[in-house]
Design brief:
The strands form 2 sheets. The protein has a 5-stranded parallel beta sheet, with helices on both faces. The chain has one domain: 3-Layer(aba) Sandwich (Rossmann fold), CATH 3.40.50. It is globular. The chain is of the alpha/beta class. The chain has helices at 13-29, 42-46, 62-84, 97-107, 122-128, 131-137, and strands at residues 4-8, 32-40, 51-53, 59-61, 88-95, 112-117, 144-148. Helix 1 runs parallel beside helix 3 (62-84). It is built from 6 helices and 7 strands; from the N terminus they run βαβαββαβαβααβ.
Length: 149
């Protein structure tokens, strides 16, 4: 039924919970996961700081820090998949999260998107720009399973 399941992750608790649910679905259906982390390019617009001190006090661009964070999110998810015997593919994209999630779902021919939610109301989500709200309100034919925190 679900041979390819896209799971966006930002390292948050709801994202980790959605990964666990997606793994269970993949085990039940014999599917594989597409683990996606999106580097939000709008962070570069909002942040005027060109570089941040790294772990060793070395100044490095914000983009490098965000790239490493995204890699750690998909690596963590991949470890869970390996532990449960579920095949997974890691992907990192840059751009607007909602657009990139939909774009990757179409590109990889995902049968389902499993995404975590903080559990905010629709009004709060619209005001603060929730990615989950954006995904479910897009005109995409790909089913979305929202995992509440």
């Amino acid at each position: 039924m679900f041979s390819k399941i896209l799971v966006p992750t930002d390292g948050s608790k709801p994202a980790r919970k959605s990964i666990e649910h997606a793994i269970a679905l993949a085990q039940a259906t014999g599917g594989q996961l597409i683990l996606l982390s999106v580097i939000d390019k709008s962070a570069f617009v909002r942040q005027s700081v060109p570089a941040m001190p790294g772990a060793m006090g070395i100044v490095e661009p914000l983009e490098n820090l965000l790239q490493r964070a995204a890699e750690s999110y998909v690596d963590e998810a991949e470890k869970l998949c390996v532990k449960k015997g579920v095949p997974a593919k890691k992907t990192i994209r840059s751009g607007h999260p909602v657009e990139e999630i939909i774009r990757e779902a179409k590109k990889s021919k995902a049968d389902l998107i499993v995404i975590g939610s903080q559990g905010r109301s629709a009004l709060k989500a619209a005001v603060i720009g929730s990615v989950t709200f954006g995904i479910i309100s897009k005109e995409s034919k790909i089913p979305v399973l929202v995992v509440r925190n």
